[in-house]
Amino acid sequence: xxxxxxxxxxxxxxxxxxxRLANLALNKGDEVNVFLLGEAVEYDKVDQExxxxxxxxxxxxxxxxxxxxxxxxxxxxxxxxxxxxxxxGGIEDLYSLIATSDKVLTF
Length: 107
Hints:
Elements: E1 2-7, H1 12-27, E2 31-36, H2 53-62, E3 66-71, H3 72-77, E4 88-89, H4 91-100, E5 103-106
Parallel strand pairs: 1-2, 1-5, 2-3, 3-4
Helix pairs in contact: 1-2
């Protein structure tokens, strides 16, 4: 299955749970894409000990069938730079993920 997850919040617990689900899907053999939209592009600034997002993202990015894309416009508004854990993409990328995915989840 091709699963796309759209994160639109920087709430640590919500993103932690979404990334845990993404990693579980990868372990079950699915292809998983995560698109960061709006304030979610700041997900890495709210890491909490109880909800270790960095650990989940590091695990996610190690998989060959995983892709993380961040809205470039949302990053520009927040003066953020492109990085491996938050690579810039665009609304075309989001559209493509939606159009080609079997399932799309939003958090």
